[in-house]
Amino acid sequence: MRRRLPAPVAAVVALLLFAGCSGGPSLENRGEVTAPPGDSHHLVVGSAGFTESDLLAQMYAQLLDHAGYKTSLLTVANRELYEPALESGQIDVVPEYAATFADWLNAKANGPDAPPVGSPDLAATMTALRRLAAPRGLTVLPPGRAVDQNAFAVSASYAREHHLRTLSDLGRSGLKVRLAAGDECVQRPYCEPGLKKTYGIDITAVDPKGVGTTPAKKAVQSGQDQMVLTTTTDATLSQFGLVILADDKHLQNADYVVPVVNRSRAGGPGPTAALDRLNKVLTTADLASLGEQVDSWRRLAQDVARAYLKEKKLIG
Amino acid sequence: MPGPDTGRSNGVVTATPDDCLARNDWICGAYLSSRGQILLDAVLQHLRLTGLAVLIGLALALPLAVVARRWRWASGPVLAVTTILYTIPSLAMFSLLLPLYGLSASLVVAGLVLYSLTLLVRNILAGLRAVPEETRQAARGLGYGPVRLLLTVELPLALPAAMAGLRIATVSAVSLVTVGAIVGFGGLGNLIYAGMNTYFKAQVLTASVLCVVIAVVADLLLLGVQRLLTPWTRAARG
Do the interacting molecules here have an ipTM over 0.85? Predict the structure, then answer.
C-alpha cells in the first residue's frame, strides 16, 4: 500500500496487522469463498480516502446506479481497513491498483518477506493478482487504460542545478536526498529500498508526510526535503514547481486501475458490465485532470465524476 | 514519466476557475453553498454519534458508580479498569474494536462509550461519596430503604458532580468523534481529514469551527439542564 497514509494511522496499521491473523474470511463466512458470483441489489463502494480513490469510487457508484443498483459510499483510511471489509462483504466494490494490490495481498498471504509478484508486466501482474484474490472471495475485474504509478518528483530548480532528468541521473549525482513519502516507503521495494538498490540514490531519511500530500510537496518546494513520492496522475506538481524524474530503469510496476469486487455479492455479470464501460474510456490523463479539478479547484468529487461520465455519455 | 496515456486528454485544457474554492481561501461562501447538504449530514452524524455514546456511557456508568459506592472492594477494580481504558490512544482503540464491530458507526460509538466511562464513573462516584453521612442517617431514620435512599437522596445530591462529569464527557466525545473518520464514521472529522489531505482550508476551518460550536452548545445545554435539575444549588448561593 503506497497511498497517502497519515502518520498516526501507522499505529492502527501495526495493530491491524497483528489483528490481521484474522486474514482471510472468518469462520462464519468461509463458505462465501466458494459461493457463486452474486448480484446483490444494494452495493457499497469503498474509497481509500485520497482524491483519486474518491473519484473512482464515485464513478463506480454512479455507473452502478445507472445500471439499476442502489449504491452507497464508504470512505476508509487505508487498505488495511477496507480489504478485510471487502472480503466480509461490508464493502462490495473498491478501485484498486493491480500491482500494488497484488503485492499487498501477497505480503498478507505469504508474509512481508515473500518475493514480490507485481511487476511492470501487466499480464503477469494480473495473473498473480487473480490467483491471490480468488481464495479470499474477491474478483478482480479487467483493467482499464488508466495507470497510476508511483513517481518521484524534485523541485525544478534542483533538477536544473544538478542536471537531473531521470532517477539514474540522481543516483549518479551522489546527492544526499531526504525523501517525503508515506512511512511505509522504507520497506516498499519500489520506494526507498528500490531507489537505493536500482538507482544508487543516497536516501538519508524518509520524511513521513504521506504520498503526494500537500505537506509533502511543500516540504520539497521549500527545500526541507529534496524529493517527494507522488503519482503519475498528480496534476498539481507544476503549482509547487516540481518535476518528475523519469523511472528509466522501470522500478515502478503495472499499477493499472482495476475494480475489485466481493465475488459473492458483486461478482455477477451485471456489475462487471457496468464497470467495464469506464475501463474502455478512462485514461491516465483524464484521471489526472479530474484529480486536478478536485485537488486544485476544490470541486466535489461527486460532481466532477458525474460531469465526466456525462461528457463521455456513460450515464444519462 | 513512464506509462501510457500521459498526455493531456483530447487536447482540452480547461482554465482554472477563479473563485474562493480555487484560491483556497480560509473563509469561502462558495464552500458553504456548494457543500451545505454535506455539512448538514456531517453535523447530524456528529450529533448522533456523540449523543448515542454519551447516553450509553451514562447508562453504563451509573450502575458501575453505584456498585463501586456500595461495595468498597468493587471501587478499586471499577476505577482501575475505566482509567486504563481512558489511556488507550483513540486510533488504537478503534482498531482493537474493529474485529468486533467491523466498519460501522457502532465501532465509533463503542470506542467513545469506553472513553466516557472514566469521566462519568469517577464524577458520579465522587458525587455519591460527597453525600454527608448525617443526611444518609437522617433518611434511614425516616424509614428510607436502600433503593429509595439512593434514588431520592443520594443521586439528587450527587447531581452537581455527576453533571460536571457529563459535561466533560460530552465535550470530549464531540472532539473524539472526529477520529472515527478513519473508518468513515467521523461526522465532521470526515471533512477535516479529507481537507487536511488536500490542504483544503475552507473545509478544515469550517468543519473545525462547527465542531467547537457543537461542543460549546452541548456544554451550555447541559449546564441549563443541571440548573433546572438542581434549583437548590442556586437558592443556597443566592
Answer: no
